[in-house]
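Page 47, continued from p. 46.
Same chain as before, 209 aa.
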Amino acid sequence: MPEEEASGAPLRCAPGVSRQSSFVVGLTTGRRGEYNAPVQPVRRFFVADLNVKGELQTVAEYRYEHLEQIPGAADLIATCSSWVWRSPEEFETSLHPSRRHLSLRWRAAAPTAGIATVRNKEQLASVSLLCSGLNAEADKLTLQAYQGHLSSELRDTGVEPGFDLIGLKQRPLVATINFAGPSDQTDQLLVALADRCFGAAYFRYLSLA
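Result:
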């Protein structure tokens, strides 16, 4: 094919620049000589909510910039981010300075996966399994560990455990098993946001969100 522009003039390259590299540069320009930055990848993660039997209820996609628009979320993300950067392997903190009976505990199962638990005083509110997708084996072991625990807990109870947890393929993923929620409405909001906000903080720490 003739290497000519629409005008019919020969395509000329700068000294030392091949026609192939000129074509690649042309893919990121609007008009000749006007460079447009490459499109950035979408930063998002997924949250799967499951019941105490391990049955999937919902899966939703979240983006950091959308999540922080929810009242209270930006402060909670900031709190989680501070702790993750300070102590990425394990920590425990209250969800809010005025709600110290609500706590979040993080424990890494691997450098790219782990388990976050939220408690209302001594009562378990939720367990969240975080799988980044950066290490498939770490993700698999994290999910299988809780599935094994769930099966053990329900053995001889007459309740059949669900296995939806193992089938979740979305990444990065927060898989949350929801237990008893608090009765206070403000507490309910903080507990509902906790896994989402921690997921946003953790995946951003891993440069994924």
